[in-house]
Design brief:
This protein is an all-alpha fold and about 140 residues long. It contains 5 helices and 2 strands, in the order ααββααα. It holds the Pfam family Cytochrom_C.
Length: about 140
């Protein structure tokens, strides 16, 4: 290789790199498109899950909690809370808030009905069944 870097060499590196990364982009896009249907759990959304999601949104739960990595980091990740704790614990925990423990962050009391709590736990069950490629990385969220 000569000691000088010519315009022709720079052009070849640019075009070669562009083609390489374009082909890499296409391969990764194809991989994502082929694996996405396997991760989808369509059809599992019913009226109860939809109402639970609406409760999640209207009460701004994401303002404190994360759900599958999205949201605030003030309170625990809830993407796998259904698997970790189960529906009875979730309902009892929400009903018992705020606990009044000094020095701890407190969740407000939401005055949810039993149906609201059932719907919210149905939403958490739905979220826990999403194929997330092992996210969150540990069981505690």
């Amino acid at each position: 290789m000569s000691g000088t870097f010519t315009k022709s060499m720079a052009r070849n590196i640019f075009y070669g790199g562009s083609v390489f990364f374009f082909l890499l982009f296409l391969a990764l896009t194809f991989d994502t498109q082929s694996s996405s249907p396997k991760r989808d759990n369509r059809g599992a959304i019913n009226e109860s899950v939809a109402h639970g999601k609406k409760l999640w949104e209207t009460n701004d739960c994401i303002g404190c909690h994360t759900l599958l990595g999205e949201g605030a980091y003030f309170a625990p990740e809830l993407g796998n809370v259904y698997k970790r704790r189960g529906p009875d614990f979730i309902k009892a925990w929400i009903k018992a808030q705020p606990t009044g423990a000094p020095g701890r962050r407190q969740m407000p009391h939401f005055n949810f009905s039993d149906k609201d709590l059932d719907d919210l736990t149905a939403f958490f069950k739905y979220v826990s069944e999403i194929q997330t490629s092992n996210w969150p990385p540990n069981i505690q969220g």
